[in-house]
């Protein structure tokens, strides 16, 4: 047998596995690195996050990624160069973390590498009838594996698309395995660049659960903060937005898009929710000369409105109090959180910390869960398939040798 396959077989059969989950999201703030210890798989998955770090990207790295990120016209050579460059950057960050944590690479069984999304194009967004759903993540897995010497599973989204999904959100698979609870309906709300949520029914019925994007989380807040305040990458604590007033006509114009009426599950990205999107809404609502504070206040309200409307669509009346477990950078924005509290007064807000997972680490952990399933789980982590949520295992395997 090829020794690589023998090694894979051995890892798959171990009672415990150490997997590093890597996530670099749409905010381009840095790489999340979660060292996880797994026991079991499927509904019997038990995960402990042994170490976690967010390693911020230097401005120069952000600038390189921004040259291709969510743009329909790019320098193609630059995209080609970024594919291995990002992989090597991520590999070196892993090696640095392991050194700092005093853990040898040989003591890690696998890296689960999301890579960097550079373009997301579900059919609903690209609108070209002869082309399928598509999404592109770069940061080649072979480069991560060879540089670190650690077996790497990467490029998780392509199988989802190939099997009928939009390539996102993949959170539903991990959320179901880690956070479902009998007799308790749960919402797992992640507020990254894009906001999404997973509904986990207390019935544990795999056919009833789903996750969906709901619109922008922080992406527009970051984009306009960076435009007006070039020395800031985001509006820390919502300090600028807190000084502004919501402009209602602009808010209505922002919400006037077919994405909001489309059925669940659905996905989106900064390709749609861009500066242009806001400028066009400003033109339609005669609000082009809004102050930065009023614009940011309106954009916070816009993010909150997408989240609230989607949750209300699932739960128009709240017979029993619904618990929302928040994660992602938006939970650190008090203005956004206050708006959500006000508009969902019947919901109880906790964070995934209350479920044993650091909310900043959650997405990186979810990719480690997907890798654990690919190694040791079944072919169908959810046990049943529903439109847009195919029952498939995900990720491509790269051997280190
Ligand atoms: N203290 C804070 N105050 C306000 N906003 C914050 C704070 N901390 C983080 N954020 C916001 O969270 C963002 C980062 O969130 P996160 O890391 O969850 O995004 P991501 O994983 O890149 O996105 P996605 O989940 O869409 O891929 C920052 O860019 C910023 O907008
Ligand atoms: C194409 C892509 O990278 N989508 C991300 C993005 O960031 C948040 C939201 O948009 C979500 O759909 C997805 O990531 C999470 C981790 C997911 O797949 O569940």
How would you describe what is shown here?
This protein has 401 residues and is of the alpha/beta class. The protein has two domains: 3-165 and 361-398, Nucleotidyltransferase, domain 5 (2-Layer Sandwich), CATH 3.30.420.40; 171-355, Nucleotidyltransferase, domain 5 (2-Layer Sandwich). The protein is 38% helix and 21% strand. The chain is built from 14 helices and twelve strands. It has helices at 3-13, 59-66, 76-101, 123-126, 141-148, 157-162, 171-179, 219-228, 248-255, 258-261, 275-284, 292-314, 334-343, 362-376, and strands at residues 16-24, 30-39, 46-56, 110-121, 134-138, 152-154, 186-191, 194-200, 210-216, 322-327, 347-351, 396-398. Strands 1, 2, 3, 4, 5, 6 and 12 form a seven-stranded mixed β-sheet that branches. It has a five-stranded mixed β-sheet with strand order 9-8-7-10-11. β10 (322-327), α13 and β11 (347-351) form a beta-alpha-beta unit. α8 packs antiparallel against α12 and α9 packs across α11 (275-284). Adenosine-5'-triphosphate binds next to α8. Adenosine-5'-triphosphate binds at residues 25-27, 29, 190, 192-194, 218, 221-222, 234-238, 328-330, 332-333, 363. This is Anhydro-N-acetylmuramic acid kinase. Keywords: Kinase, Transferase. It comes from Hymenobacter qilianensis.
């Amino acid at each position: 047998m090829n020794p690589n396959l023998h090694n894979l077989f051995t890892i798959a059969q171990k009672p415990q596995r150490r997997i590093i989950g890597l996530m670099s999201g749409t905010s381009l703030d840095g790489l999340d690195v979660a060292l996880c210890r797994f026991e079991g798989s499927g509904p019997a998955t038990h995960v402990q996050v042994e170490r976690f770090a967010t390693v911020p990207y230097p401005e120069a790295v952000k600038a390189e990624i921004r040259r291709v990120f969510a743009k329909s016209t790019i320098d193609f050579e630059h995209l080609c160069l970024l594919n291995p460059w990002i992989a090597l950057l991520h590999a070196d960050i892993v090696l640095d973390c392991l050194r700092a944590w005093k853990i040898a690479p040989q003591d890690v069984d696998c890296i689960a590498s999301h890579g960097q999304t550079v373009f997301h194009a579900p059919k609903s967004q690209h609108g070209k009838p002869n082309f399928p759903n598509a999404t592109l993540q770069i940061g080649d897995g072979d480069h991560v594996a060879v540089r670190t010497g650690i077996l790497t599973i990467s490029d998780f989204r392509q199988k989802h698309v190939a099997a009928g999904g939009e390539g996102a959100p993949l959170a539903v698979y991990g959320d179901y395995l880690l956070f479902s609870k009998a007799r308790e309906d749960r919402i797992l709300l992640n507020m990254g660049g894009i906001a999404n949520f997973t509904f986990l029914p207390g019935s544990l019925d795999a056919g009833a659960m789903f996750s969906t994007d709901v619109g922008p989380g922080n992406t527009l807040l970051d984009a306009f903060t960076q435009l007006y305040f070039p020395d800031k990458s985001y509006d820390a604590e919502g300090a600028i937005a807190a000084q502004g007033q919501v402009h209602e006509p602009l808010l209505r114009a922002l919400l006037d898009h077919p994405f909001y009426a489309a059925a669940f599950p659905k996905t989106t990205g900064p390709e749609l929710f861009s500066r242009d999107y806001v400028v066009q809404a400003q033109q339609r609502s005669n609000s082009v000369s809004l102050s930065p504070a009023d614009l940011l206040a309106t954009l916070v309200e816009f993010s909150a409105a997408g989240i609230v409307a989607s949750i209300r669509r699932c739960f128009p009346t709240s017979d029993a109090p619904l618990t929302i477990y928040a994660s992602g950078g938006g939970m650190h924005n008090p203005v956004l959180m206050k708006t959500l509290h006000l508009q969902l007064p019947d919901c109880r807000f906790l964070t995934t910390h209350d479920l044993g997972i650091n909310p900043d680490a959650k997405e990186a952990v979810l990719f480690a869960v997907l890798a654990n399933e690919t190694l040791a789980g079944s072919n169908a982590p959810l046990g049943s398939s529903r439109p847009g949520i195919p029952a498939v295992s995900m990720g491509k395997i790269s051997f280190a040798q």
